[in-house]
Amino acid sequence: MSEDIELELQCKYCDYEELLNVPESDYNAWAGNGALLQEVFDYLSAGQRELMKSGTCDTCWNKFFPNIDDEDEDVEDMG
Ligand SMILES: [Zn+2]
């Protein structure tokens, strides 16, 4: 069993902040053991994962890379 830890994610490019509770074992698998972010945190949205990985929120990411097709199947297309 693993306890949840609270991650405070902050966008480097704007004031966006998000608090995420994830199992500590998942976080350690990614941060400590080099597991793939999208596999460990497949229950998070693509935007949340990007915020963890690169410190870029969904809004800013789409601003910087408006034409990139996300590989994730669960991407939410806002039209
Ligand atoms: Zn941002």
Could you characterize what this model shows?
The protein is an alpha+beta fold and 79 residues long. The protein is built from four helices and two strands, in the order ββαααα. The chain has helices spanning 24-31, 37-40, 46-54, 58-64; strands at 4-10, 17-23. It has one domain. It has a two-stranded antiparallel sheet with strand order 1-2. Bound molecules: zinc ion (ZN).
C-alpha-based Rg, rounded = 13 Å
Count of helix runs: 4
Largest sheet: 2 strands, antiparallel
Pick out the low-confidence regions. none
As laid out across the biggest beta sheet, the strand order is 1-2
Structural class: alpha+beta
Question: What is the count of structural domains?
Answer: 1
Helical residue percent? Answer: 25-40%
Number of strands: 2
What fraction of the residues are assigned to beta strands by DSSP? 15-25%
Short structural description:
The chain is α+β, with helices and mostly antiparallel strands. The chain is built from four helices and two strands, in the order ββαααα.
Secondary structure layout:
Elements: E1 4-10, E2 17-23, H1 24-31, H2 37-40, H3 46-54, H4 58-64
Antiparallel strand pairs: 1-2
Zinc ion (ZN) is lined by residues 11, 13-14, 16, 57, 59-60.
Attribute tags:
single chain; 79 residues; alpha+beta; 2 strands; 35% helix; globular; binds zinc ion
